[in-house]
């Protein structure tokens, strides 16, 4: 940790000073790290190697997605006042695997384990929109549209149009298509390779929170969290 942007290469004396170790102790640690491949020595100077990234990757790959996301879920809730959930695809459904609920009366509670049809959930549309075209087309052939309210889209052409919009704008809004009076907003979560992994989504009562307010108040915080979470997904 003593190596940073300001000190990418250091002598033994500098490492000793920054770490608070005596020179003998610092030398033993440095030579061990050189032997293991985490540090390289060039004359009197030592510097980190890319191998140190393996330590972070080992940790990140061992932590379940829900656990990684909980910090961001809580942060979004605290910043916006809206409840927020983490949704993943399970077949033709989206399932909530983590959530942070709010005490506000403007939104319904989000329950872990609850399932929603992928075509009508804002999280589902984010996931569909950001999939590879071939995978998306294969999945769309399996979907049977069963409108859940009078506002639900009922044709595959309409769904494809919505997915194009989501892909273009980077988020999805589903207005009372799953239930009259309930509006939802979702943002896709990509991994470090740009592949869709999950989605953050929030719900609100349409009679209390207009679409414009939902977007202005919630979208920036959710997008920022999704981008930060992306850096932890290998």
TrEMBL record:
This protein's UniProt keywords: DNA-binding, Transcription, Transcription regulation
UniProt domain IclR-ED: residue ranges: 51-234
SMART domains in alphabetical order: HTH_ICLR
Coiled coil stretches, renumbered: none
InterPro entries found in the cross-reference section: GAF-like_dom_sf (IPR029016), HTH_MetabolicPath_Reg (IPR050707), Tscrpt_reg_IclR_C (IPR014757), Tscrpt_reg_IclR_N (IPR005471), WH-like_DNA-bd_sf (IPR036388), WH_DNA-bd_sf (IPR036390)
Presence of the UniProt keyword Transcription in the record: yes
Keyword Transcription: yes
Protein name per the record: Helix-turn-helix domain-containing protein
